[in-house]
Amino acid sequence: MSRSKLKAAGYIRVSDESQVEGLSLDAQRREIIRNCERQGYELSRIYADEGVSAYTDRVEARPQFTQLLEDAERGIYDVVIVHTIDRWARPDFCAVADARASWKSQRGFFSITENIDYTTPFGKLVLTYIGALVSSSAPSWGCM
Q: Do residues 68 and 47 touch, judged by C-beta distance below 8 A?
């Protein structure tokens, strides 16, 4: 399949008001749109969860995230794009499990900030490493 023909879905999220500046939903949305234009992707939809923490392994706590995963299973898009990996998930087990579910359903996964395609062998290694770093730092942030 030609890269220019890929359908993309974006996922954006903010946990609370402290993230509105810089990581606002609008800022994340703009970056995903720009990335799709640069990559030649057709942006199908942007899923947005506002005021929802990624520090949970309960997927149902994030309704738009849940919808995105369901749509992946239905084959609605070819690649998921996030502004940064921590918008997707924080704890390493959650990020890795979600990305692996995306791979199983033959969907790509790309983070703009890290500039890594997480469906490649190198990307899978980096995802695991980033997840471990974030997970080990989370207790000091008081989030786990």
A: yes
Spell out the CATH class of 3-141: alpha beta
Confidence of residue 59 (pLDDT cuts 50, 70, 90): low
Domain ranges of the chain: 3-141
The rounded distance, in Å, linking the Cα atoms of 90 and 104 is 21
Place of tokens 């008081």: 142
Q: Three-state DSSP class for 72?
A: helix
Which of these, 98, 82, 100, 89, lies nearest to 143 by C-alpha position?
89
Q: Are strands 116-117 and 42-50 parallel, antiparallel or unpaired?
A: unpaired
User: Measured between alpha carbons, how far is residue 77 from residues 25, 84, 105, 107 in Å?
Assistant: 21, 19, 10, 7
CB-based contact 22:57 (threshold 8 Å): no
pLDDT level of residue 129 (50, 70, 90 thresholds): confident
78 near 43, Cβ under 8 Å? Answer: no
